[in-house]
Amino acid sequence: MGETMDTEDSLTHDPSGTAAAMAPSRLPTTARTGRNRSRLRVLILDDHALFAECLDLALTTSGHDVQKAELPMNPARSAKLLATVCRNRPDVVVLDLDLGAFGDGARLIPSLVQSGAAVVVVTADENQARWGECMRYGARKVMSKSAPLNEIVATLRRLGDGLTVLQPMEREELLQRWHENRVQEQALRARFNQLTVRESEVLGHLTHGRTVRDIATFSVVSEATVRTQVKSILSKLGVSSQIAAVAAAHQVDWRSPVD
């Protein structure tokens, strides 16, 4: 069973991800040539203990050197985690996207790739646009956690043997999904810019679960006034309900004056 790694050092990484996406992954010579099955150094970054333990066992049984990194509770401490990765120089990093209190794992991909590791994302999130974002950041493959464990292990073995793990068309389709989603989100953000300051405040209250009556009482105005403001918000955002407006706000990570 692999050992848990510490997080002691710091690292400054490229936030744009440009250099990371261009950096080649460092795999053993035998892996690059494909002459012999290599003993991979695999690092698991996943906050789901059971899945991480199962994958650790499967990979260790297959003859690979496996470690599990301890995830910081604060996303601001990612530099220490990345420094630990660089110090241990894994060939492959198996990365989850939703890392609990640590947050979004996708933002780690550029720096992980820049460190020389090949990144394989294994996630419960089936959002293909998010998978495409991982491809854009330099991940070699994205897989669902619902996939059989032996399929995940086989993918890592193929990667170590220098074989193809992702067809070009599959990569292009995922990148296209990401691009389409980005265009849609940009258009949605533009609608939020149409809101007045007062409408933004009202929507902010709605995102916090407050009712029209609550907002009216808090703002010392009539409920009819608030309903008129809500109607204008729905019209500008192109949605038909308060729930849809709140969902749209979360989708683009919108922040209101009352946050």
SSE layout:
Blueprint: E1 3-5, H1 18-22, H2 29-33, E2 41-45, H3 49-61, E3 65-69, H4 78-88, E4 92-95, H5 109-114, E5 118-123, H6 128-137, E6 141-144, H7 149-160, H8 168-192, H9 197-207, H10 212-219, H11 223-237, H12 242-251
Parallel strand pairs: 1-3, 2-3, 2-4, 4-5, 5-6
Give a structural overview.
With 259 residues, the chain is of the alpha/beta class. The protein folds into 2 domains: 175 residues, 3-Layer(aba) Sandwich (Rossmann fold); 58 residues, Winged helix-like DNA-binding domain superfamily/Winged helix DNA-binding domain (Arc Repressor Mutant, subunit A, Orthogonal Bundle), CATH 1.10.10. Helices cover 51% and strands 10% of the residues. The chain contains 12 helices and 6 strands. A 6-stranded parallel beta sheet has the order 1-3-2-4-5-6, with helices on both faces. α6 links the parallel β5 and β6. α10 crosses α11. The longest helix has 25 residues. It is elongated, with a radius of gyration of 22 Å. The N terminus is likely disordered.
How many distinct folded domains? 2
Total count of helical runs of at least 4 residues: 12
Mean pLDDT: 85
Write the CATH architecture name of the largest domain.
Answer: 3-Layer(aba) Sandwich
Distance between the termini: 45 Å
Number of strands: 6
In helices, the fraction of residues equals 40-55%
* Alpha-beta content class: alpha/beta
List SSEs in N-to-C order: EHHEHEHEHEHEHHHHHH
CATH fold topology of the largest domain: Rossmann fold
Strand content: 5-15%
The CATH C-level name of the largest domain is Alpha Beta
